[in-house]
């Protein structure tokens, strides 16, 4: 089968190539075979390509975690309501950059007819992650305030809207340009009482903006950036605040005031979704299926697509993600 491979196992963007001699995946218990029609890019793909993101044990070395396609094979005895020929989408721990994929039944959704394969493929990682970091790890409660760093990222766009569904008082979001500030402002949901305040980190200090609007600070911070923000995050959290570290795009070594953490009873939480057990991911899938997917289909929640590429354009797709200029998902189709 065809799949995206990496020359020498890791490297820069130009190391990506289409390999037409990759072996078909072998199905494990609880897995079905998918003919992939589209997959989406995620930040972890860039890190894995560069050898900086170790995949969970037993996971395919092929890049990609979210996909859309058609069920080709369901082994006898597999407990699932799915049928061969069903159009589906879902989340895997690896292997989505390929024509064929072994996918666990716990994290598969039937694709609504209203959604294209391109849109469906771009949903899982974004909304699973937003749900996990905000509600499960961040323990966000109705009426609390949120700061999301990299707020114009795909996960940021999702989390900003999800916080409004839980009646956030304030949502602050750091972004890299004034145009992204305007994009974040457009995430205001109909009839939402939440005040959304985007912050251009190149011209504004987020601590000052937050103190001006919410002197007591924020309850939850979700941070995919890491090092450069950590000390300031601690300073702006309320009593019993939670700082969720979900990535580290900058320095991983930081110094901070332990006394402030103790006196404010802060919780510093690190998390990834990819390494979580299937039962945990299945729990997140149930939330997404019940509370989020219907709102995406109806248009009540925005889920923007930045650009769609063909498989042969995988290098260009990765270059676009590396540019950090996108505000929606990047998707690749496999004809």
From TrEMBL:
GO terms of molecular function: NADPH binding; oxidoreductase activity, acting on NAD(P)H
Record flagged with keyword Manganese: no
Alphabetized Gene3D superfamilies for the sequence: Medium-chain alcohol dehydrogenases, catalytic domain, NAD(P)-binding Rossmann-like Domain
Keyword Coiled coil included in the entry's annotation: no
Alphabetical list of InterPro entries matching this protein: ADH-like_C (IPR013149), ADH-like_N (IPR013154), ER (IPR020843), GroES-like_sf (IPR011032), NAD(P)-bd_dom_sf (IPR036291), Quinone_OxRdtase_PIG3 (IPR014189)
Domain Enoyl reductase (ER): 11-332
CDD domains: p53_inducible_oxidoreductase
Entry keywords, A to Z: NADP, Oxidoreductase
Name of the protein in its database record: Enoyl reductase (ER) domain-containing protein
Organism: Kuraishia capsulata CBS 1993
